[in-house]
Specification:
30% helix, alpha/beta, globular, 8-stranded mixed β-sheet, 12 helices
């Protein structure tokens, strides 16, 4: 099974893979304000930066991990993205951040620093390709647009912008999952073993980056789902710099289908349920339309908490990139991570867990509609819907930022076609 480039929950999951095979030593390493760029020259370019392709990391916990990024890009079992770019004479610059939960605008400053460094180091006048995976596509989108808007910043000298399963119209963190995480952290955040994982998980969901990406956010279990003020402020800032970079060709891909076919997760179904030492009749449900109780949370010897939503679409089952697909390697998905944490809290989890769900709807990844619109979520996507100049969607709904030949080869061909 292909590994994702950006493993959203990996760093906070108690049974996540702890290490990856080491990436090759970079030919150069740029220490940036707020991050690091690892430079791999194409073998065709004799260790010179001639045709830079900057690829930004996305949203996860802590700092970027080069070994993990390289594994997703190059050793994923399906498509060697770096090698294929190298074969076309492109030099690959992998851009990482000191804090992947920091605000998008803050990490965009790091991206701007990286673009400026690439221009300064480049031999010749070839235009750059700049983009990113997951939230990395938003970071670089804002960075390029700001460089065009702000006269104090230099020309970005970029011909192509590329996004890979990026939440252009927002990401979906299931409200039931957010509620359980904050509830459990409030009750057992200081417990041994599971406490640190709960605190990190809750912290991620309440981080600046998550608040800016999430279409619906709650800070604690009893809140009403809504767009966070931080998201409204980011969208305003993005609009102020033009929304998109104007002087580039904008391309993107989605890890979900464009046919409108959902992922098979049934709306209203119970995703995970447990009973035991610490939790009584506690369950989380798949999001459905209309008024719905999406979670029942009850600590032993305490009153139950009901979590309600109203007016949300059937988004868990929508076409799009999935939270990491559960696998024998220990990945847990979205509701699968909740099941793992319930078990670590001393409870028996019903075996029929629906482990994963939609994270980045296809219409968000290719900027083709409002994810709060139930009809738009499930309609076929055509070129006239998208704000991108060109896009392609996967042939199936697959794991978020999974690198495949289907998507990777299309991007490489598009980059080469621009020259």
């Amino acid at each position: 099974m292909s590994a994702p480039v950006v493993d959203v929950w990996g760093p906070v999951s108690p049974n996540a893979r702890s290490s990856f095979p080491p990436a090759p030593e970079p030919h150069d390493e740029w220490v940036l304000d707020g991050g690091t760029a690892w430079v791999y020259y194409s073998p065709l370019n004799r260790r010179q930066l001639i045709r830079p392709v900057i690829l930004s990391d996305g949203f996860s916990n802590g700092s970027s991990n080069l070994d993990q990024l390289w594994h997703g890009l190059e050793e994923n079992g399906d498509y060697r993205f770096v090698s294929e770019l190298h074969a076309t004479g492109r030099d690959v610059v992998i851009l990482g951040y000191n804090d992947r939960t920091a605000s998008i605008r803050s990490n965009a400053d790091t991206a701007i620093d990286c673009i400026r460094r690439a221009i300064a180091e480049r031999a010749g006048r070839a235009k750059l390709t700049v983009g990113g995976f997951s939230m990395g596509g938003l970071i670089t989108r804002y960075a390029l647009a700001r460089m065009e808007w702000d006269p104090a910043l230099p020309d970005h000298e970029t011909s192509t912008y590329v996004s890979y399963d990026t939440p252009h119209q927002g990401a979906w963190f299931p409200v039931a999952l957010q509620a359980f995480t904050h509830f459990a952290t409030d009750k057992w955040g200081e417990a041994p073993v599971v406490g640190p994982a709960l605190r990190q998980f809750s912290g991620m969901l309440n981080s600046p980056a998550a608040r800016q990406m999430a279409r619906w956010h709650i800070e604690k279990a009893g809140d009403t789902p809504a767009q966070a003020p931080e998201r409204a402020a980011f969208l305003k800032a993005l609009d102020e710099v033009g929304g998109w970079p104007r002087g580039v060709r904008k391309i993107g891909v989605a890890n979900g289908v464009d046919t409108g076919a959902g992922n098979g997760v049934p709306a209203g179904a119970t995703a995970v349920k447990c009973n035991g030492e610490t939790l009584i009749d506690t369950w989380l449900k798949i999001q459905a339309q209309g008024d719905q109780v999406v979670a029942r949370l009850q600590k032993a010897d305490d009153e139950p908490t009901s979590v309600r939503t109203s007016g949300l679409p059937e988004i868990d089952g929508a076409p799009g990139g999935l939270f990491t697909v559960p696998s024998p390697a220990g990945d847990t998905g979205s509701f699968g991570l909740a099941a793992l944490l319930m078990g670590l809290l001393g409870n028996t989890v019903d075996p029929d867990v629906i482990g994963t769900s939609c994270f980045i709807p296809s219409i968000s990844a290719v900027a083709a509609g409002d994810i709060s619109d139930p009809k738009a979520l499930y309609r076929p996507i055509t070129p006239d819907h998208s704000e991108l100049d060109a896009f392609v969607c996967a042939g199936r709904n697959e794991g978020h930022t999974t690198m495949t030949e289907e998507l990777g080869a299309w991007i490489v061909n598009e980059i080469v076609s621009v020259g």
